[in-house]
Amino acid sequence: MKATAIANANIAIIKYWGRRDEALRIPTNNSISFTMDDQLQSVTTVEFSEKLRHDTLQLNGRQPKPKQLARVSHFLDFVRTKAKKKKLFAKIVSKNSFPTAAGLASSASGFAALAAASTLAIGLRSFSENKKNLSMLARLGSGSASRSVFGGAAEWRAGVKKDGSDCYSVQLSAPEKWKDLRNVIAITNSKEKRISSTDAMTRTVRTSEMFKCRLESVERRLRIVRKAIYDRDFESMAKTIMQESDSMHAVMLDSWPPIAYLNGISLEIIHKVIEINDSYGRPVAAYTFDAGPNAHIYTTKKYERAVRKALDDVDGIERVMVCGIGDGVRYPKKDLF
Ligand code: PMV
């Protein structure tokens, strides 16, 4: 009853920000992302045992916060219900290869790996072996986790049904098709964020007047990005990627009380990327920010050096790392315990 899974983080280019159903984590709009390579990875081992009286979690070698354990247990309740084993608890050990909750999408890789490991461990093969079902389940832990089930580019469909049965991700493009794509990540603050994305997006949907307007532009942007992915044409979606990030951060600021994830260094980076593109006369790089101040600059192999060089001029960046595009969920032979 023990199983291990690996999932990588994904960084959205069309963002998930807002839910039409909170409990079922059904989003207000479709979103699209690229899955990162193994540098941004969660490995999770789950063992169910009749000897346990409650779930235990070890996260990056430490005891989790009560809130983190509660969220994981709540997710496992869905798994237990589906397996009809409501009283079966688990020991969970999970490791991230990168800072948790710093806007590097640790919840996406974490819950995708947890969904895969827990369903395999409890014997729910219709989930552990079926990516559509797995992405639907991972969504209940963290919305963005539904996209991390797939490698390459993935689209998470919001669907229209009330029960969320048409709300899952699909792969748009295999990782091999994006060998030249890079995400140059500039960590501007690796500390944990002040407000979780789960709580923040609820606030936006409830209070932002600009939110409705954002939903209209997302539909148009989805069409542009889907075509660019189909054509494997990064430059044709670069501007849209940046406008999409700006739109999400605008509705965050338009919420009450306002939500501000970007810091001064993030803003410097935005201007640097615009400068690089101006200097080439073409959009060769595109910034995007999640619920945190760290920059993700998508570019191609050809311009990676130019982007890194431009970042040298920005004061206060803690660390720069470069990710390629990676795989979806998989099951390694070795367990963590
Ligand atoms: O990681 P979640 O499911 O709480 O949602 C985070 C949403 C963003 O990262 C801000 C955008 C996205 O689509 O990943």
Strand order of the largest sheet: 1-6-8-7
Low-confidence stretches: none
The residue fraction in helices comes out at 25-40%
Number of strands: 14
- Largest sheet data: 4 strands, mixed
- Examine the coordinates and then state which fold CATH places here, giving the name of the CATH topology of the largest domain: Ribosomal Protein S5, domain 2
Task: Decide which structural class fits the backbone.
Answer: alpha+beta
Morphology: globular
Strand content: 15-25%
Defining traits:
Ribosomal Protein S5, domain 2; 38% helix; 337 residues; four-stranded mixed beta sheet; binds (3R)-3-hydroxy-3-methyl-5-(phosphonooxy)pentanoic acid; alpha+beta; 2 domains
What does this 3D model show about the protein?
The structure is a single chain. The chain is an alpha+beta fold and 337 residues long. The chain is 38% helix and 22% strand. It has 10 helices and 14 strands. The strands form 4 sheets. A 4-stranded mixed beta sheet has the order 1-6-8-7. A 4-stranded antiparallel beta sheet has the order 2-5-9-10. Strand 12 and strand 13 form a beta hairpin. Helix 1 runs parallel beside helix 2 and helix 7 packs antiparallel against helix 8. The radius of gyration is 19 Å and the shape is globular. The protein starts with a strand and ends in a 14-residue tail after the last strand. The mean pLDDT is 96. The protein binds (3R)-3-hydroxy-3-methyl-5-(phosphonooxy)pentanoic acid (PMV).
